[in-house]
Structure formats: C-alpha cells, structure tokens
Design brief:
Two copies of one chain form a homodimer. By secondary structure, chain A is α/β, with parallel strands linked by helices. In chain A, 45% of the residues lie in helices and 15% in strands. Chain A folds into two domains: 147 residues, Isopropylmalate Dehydrogenase, CATH 3.40.718.10; 186 residues, Isopropylmalate Dehydrogenase (3-Layer(aba) Sandwich), CATH 3.40.718. Chain A contains eleven helices and eleven strands. An eleven-stranded mixed beta sheet of chain A has the order 3-2-1-4-11-10-5-6-9-7-8, sandwiched between helices. Chains A and B meet through helix 3, helix 5, helix 8 and helix 9 of A and helix 3, helix 5, helix 8 and helix 9 of B.
Chain lengths: 358, 358
C-alpha cells in the first residue's frame, strides 16, 4: 500500500518524521511504498544520509509549510503547495491509500474532510484516540473534529470506535460508554439522553450506559463517546495532569537523597513507557473515505513509525468496509429513532440533576 | 455565626461528620454555633461520647436520609424530613448562616437553589472547586450545577470565582481563563465566543483568554470557567486519573524490592497531601443568597472540619456582598452585550477549527 506522510508536521519535523518513516520502512513489505511530502531540498538529503531501507521511499515536493498556530482554513487556501494541502490531494486522487500528519490539527481535519469526503452512511468524521490505562486501552471519540454534535453523530462514533477497538486493539465485543455527568439514566443533557436512546435501540451494540469522567480509568468501558469539545478537554487535561503529576513527583524526589531519587527513576520510566500514547502512533480520523492519521505535535520518530504501522493495520483490516456494512444494517431503525430534531438549548432542558419525576 | 451541617451526608457519615464538626468546634469562636442535622438518636450519643468542645453543638432532628444515588427532586419531595431538606429550610428561615453537606450533590443543589434563592444579579448558581496544582490553586466554576449554560451564566461564574479566589485564596487580581479547545480567539463553539466577548468587555476583569485542558496545570490562570457538563467531566476525570496513576505507580513499585517500595511511600504520601482537595473542605455553591458548601461523598472528618472553617471564612469575608456590588456595576454594559439571544445549535455554528476567514 502507499502511505503518504507530512514531512513538515510537528515540532520535531523534518528529522523525526524522516527517521520514523525510514524505521517503519524496515518493517513494511516490499510492495509497500512510503511517500514523504514536504520541501524536497530539505527531505532528500536526509533520506540519502540514512543508509538502510527496505520499503521504497519517494519524495513529493511541497515547498510551503502551515505553522502549528496558523488559522486552518485560511492557511489552506493561501498555501496550496503546503505539505497538508498536497497530502490531502494525493488521497483524493487515489495516489495514496493513507495519509499521516503531525502538523496543524485543524488544517489536517479541514483538508482531509474536504478532499477525502465521508464514508457512505457517516454524517461527520470524528477523531479517535486510545488512552492507555491501567485497566487496558480505552478508545475515545470524538476528541476535537466536531464540537457541535448531534445524537446521530455520537451514535456513529460509537459504531466506528467500537469496530476500531475490535480490529485494532483486539477487544472482543467492546463495551461502549456514553460520557455524562452521572451513571444514572436520568443524568445528562438532552443530547446525551437522545444519544442513549439510539445506542439502546441497537441490539448489536454492547452499550454499558452513561459513564463519568473517572470511569475512563476504572475499566468499565473499552470505548467512550463524547462530543469533540468535551473530548478535546479530556485529551488535553489528561496530558496536562500527567505531566503536572510527574513534575510534582520529580520535585518531591529532588528533596530526597540523590541515591533514592536515582533508584526511582527506572520505575517512573517504566510507567511512562507503559502508558505512553506514542505507542499508538496517532489518532484515526474515523468516518473518512480513506485512512487518515493525525499525530501529536510533539511526535518523535517512534510515534511516526508506529503511526505508519497503525495506518497499514487499519487499511489491511478493511475497517472502513466494516463500518459501511454495520451502518447500512443499522440505518433503518436508527434513522427512525433519531429523526434529527433540533436540540433545544433552553435552561429548562439542561438541569444537571434532573430526574424522572420531572 | 450559625453553621448547619448534614450529619448523614457522604459515605463516612455520621462518624466522620460528627468528628469533623467537633474538631472544627475547637477552632471556632465562642459566639459561633454548630448545628448537626440528622437523626437525633444517632447523633446525640456520638456527641456525648466526645468530651472536649468549645463551640456549642446543637442537634436538629431529621429522621430521614436521602441516599447518594436517589433521584434528587423526587427524593426531596418524598422525604421532607431528610437532613438535606431540613438543612435548606434552616437556611431559608434564617436559622443558619451557612449550610454544609457531603450528601447527594443533586439533592443539595436542588434544595439549596429552591430554598435559598439567588443573589441579586445572579441568573444561575455555579459550583466552584479548587484544584491544588503544582503551580498553585486553580478555582474551576461550574463543575455541575448548570449543564445548559448561557454566556451570561459563564460571565457571572468568572466574576464570582474571581472574587472567591481573591478573598478565599489570597490571589491578587486573579487571571481568568475560558475553557475551550484552543488558545486562539477563533477556537471554540458559539457559547465560548460570545462569553469571550462579555469577558473582554469588562475592563475590571483580568481575562487571559481561551485556555485548553492542559493549561489548568500550567499556571496560566487562577480561575477557569466552563459549563457544568464540561466542568463535571474535568472534576471526575482528574479524580480518576490521579487515582489510576497512583495505582499504576504502586503496582510498579510492588515489582521492585520491598525496601525501595517502602522508602518511596513517604514521598507519595507527601504528594498526596500537598495536592489533596480535602484541604479545601468542599465546593462553594456560588451565587446563592447565603453560604452553601457541598463536600465530596468520601469526605473524612478533616474535610468536614476544613469545610466548616471555609464556610466561616466565606461568610466573614462578605463575599456575597462583593459579588452583588460587582455585578450591579457591570450589569449595564454586560446586559447590553449579552442580549440573551438563543444559542444556535446547528453544525455550521460549531466547527471545531473555524477561523476568521469564514
């Protein structure tokens, strides 16, 4: 298969990207082809410098770069020769089977959505990330592609993330939880309540009901569904909290004897490795008619290598075909149940502690 | 002042509550009075058993108990002699200057809102919690009272939480951040954008703009504002993640030599203590015409003691008067700016990565 990678995406580009691609190349099959997209004059010398490679690596010139903080849509329009713009066109023209970028997330989502279009039956794509927890991996969708979700979007995220967890993470019959503010059925806003009705109506879905923030780490579900605003807060909060806590532990250790601090270092390194998102490579943009992975801006070569392997696994497992098949079967009663009514946004419809007596 | 405490609230009631009240009693003034509300036959023997006390402790009989998982409104209506119902009536009849409960949060919010009413100028109360972070305490509001926020609610949370941080945590000119999915102005949904306009329009507010989930732990703001759904997810996610991470560390240590594990225990205990929410006692329900604290269901006697001291500090600092004064001054231009338009809930108005070019 042909995997195109944004060579200029992220804080460590292009070095980490090129290295990661070459590392992955060692592990791919002879028939696979990697395409690095970015300024040829920057990338080609780096490839030549590296010696060992198995899979062939091609370079497609894209002299412009979209910065991490540039406004997505505007920069895409202005920089038609940027690596992200070129990447999305490769996917559109069927010149790449998968695209990967650690660049500006907003620009990636906008470009990939615009060029690759949605899978049949999918209304809006969602970004799925895997949280490595003590109780096993939890797939969370959406973490930022769609901040104005409708119940039907959330239902589709449950379907897609469930199929993803089954085929990518080998989770049998994944338990799906719906993010809310209490486990009881009556808790949550109108969108949560209507999404719950859709999920319950699907007898093929292993729906375990509402979950709360703390449940992600308690092993009660394999898939957690939320709108992109909440998911994005969850993703970044987790990152900030883990970093903050490790900083606090380091600070406390510094007040101890150096020998003790040194002895504890390998323990912390083990934990960091075990729960390291870099192992999962990147976040799948589920629901696109193709394979698109978005990596963290701080991606290292190892992250890129794993993202390339994940893209191959996703493509080879024909996950998109399975999503189309599932949604085509479930569509009749789901469409009937969703009825796409507008969500009310009045205070009366969002009491935090509503109950059945109301 | 008179502080009424729900003796039956939380997992460790009534023992932890009675002990906490008696501990606080030692630290209060002679003129202060504590009122324990709950089944007299359960509480009185526990008070008699304890010897030393300075402040007087009264008991008001409330034979019924609302369970932690009972539906709030329905149980309040059925159990008129429950500790939470009696507590809220004491506040209403001006028989208590402050109320505290570690019981069913939903029932507390419903009862206190219904009986105590809002402060003049406040549309909806919000729950404020203090996150002890490595960079200092961060006050987050709302964490679950109001899951269908309007921009004016969020603006008022910023005002109230700012005054709270200034007077309760001695933070000078608190920096207020608005929870969103990116720091740039263009990021966020329509509610975030309209709230930002209100916050910017207030020249007395030290508004630092949008923040992301990770920023809570990075020292960029002293106050973080969000709707009750997002805030509740943040609160519970943080709790779950911290517990999960400590569990993982413990697990890793167990694979080490016992001596090393034992040496590390005091370090972890220090960290746990330093970032322990029990130190802050409980969460203030800001915007009520009175003083109401809601404590965590797992509250220990220390938590209750600290909650009683926090209630006294809040009351004595006349924070509610300061909120009324601030809002009465800001009301003219804020009302002009907010105009209470209904929020649109269409996909076009909530693109995650919208930018100015649209």
């Amino acid at each position: 298969m042909r995997i195109a990678i944004d060579a200029m995406g992220g804080d460590n580009a292009p070095d980490a990207i090129v290295s990661g691609a070459l590392e992955a190349g060692q592990l791919l099959d002879d028939c696979d082809r990697l395409i690095l997209v970015g300024p040829a004059k920057e990338i080609e010398p780096r490839i030549s410098a590296a010696k060992s490679k198995k899979a062939s690596v091609a370079v497609i010139d894209a002299p412009e770069v979209i910065g991490m903080d540039e406004p997505p849509v505007e920069s895409l329009r202005k920089k038609v020769k940027s690596s992200i713009a070129v990447l999305s066109k490769l996917a559109k023209r069927d010149q790449a089977d998968a695209v990967i970028s650690a660049g500006n997330t907003g620009a990636c989502v906008a470009a990939f959505q615009m060029r690759m279009r949605n899978l049949p039956g999918v209304n809006r794509p969602g970004i799925a990330v895997v949280f490595p927890t003590f109780e096993g991996p939890v797939t969370i969708c959406d973490v930022g592609a769609n901040i104005a979700c409708k119940p039907i979007n959330l239902y589709q995220y449950a379907v897609m993330a469930g199929i993803y967890a089954h085929h990518m993470l080998a989770v049998n019959n994944p338990r799906v939880g719906l993010m809310s503010i209490g486990q009881e059925d009556a808790k949550g806003n109108e969108m949560v309540k209507r999404t719950r009705d859709l999920l319950k109506a699907d007898s093929d879905m292993n729906f375990v009901g509402n979950i709360e923030g703390r449940d992600i780490f308690k092993g009660v579900c394999d898939v957690a569904i939320c709108d992109g605003f909440v998911g994005n807060v969850i993703l970044k909060l987790t990152e900030g909290l883990v970093n903050g806590l490790f900083k606090a532990i380091k600070h406390e250790l510094m007040t101890e004897k150096l020998r003790l601090a040194m002895k504890f270092k390998p323990v912390m390194t083990r934990i960091y490795k075990k729960y390291d998102y870099n192992e999962y490579g990147g976040a799948l943009l589920l629901g696109l008619n193709g394979t698109a992975l978005i990596c963290h801006g701080t991606s290292q070569s190892r992250t890129i290598k794993n993202a390339i392997l994940a893209a191959k696994k996703f493509h080879m497992a024909k996950i998109n075909d399975k999503i189309i098949e599932y949604l085509s079967k479930s569509s009749s009663y789901i469409v009937h149940n969703s009825q796409d009514k507008p969500l009310k946004n009045s205070q009366n419809h969002g009491r935090a502690f509503d109950d059945k007596s109301r």
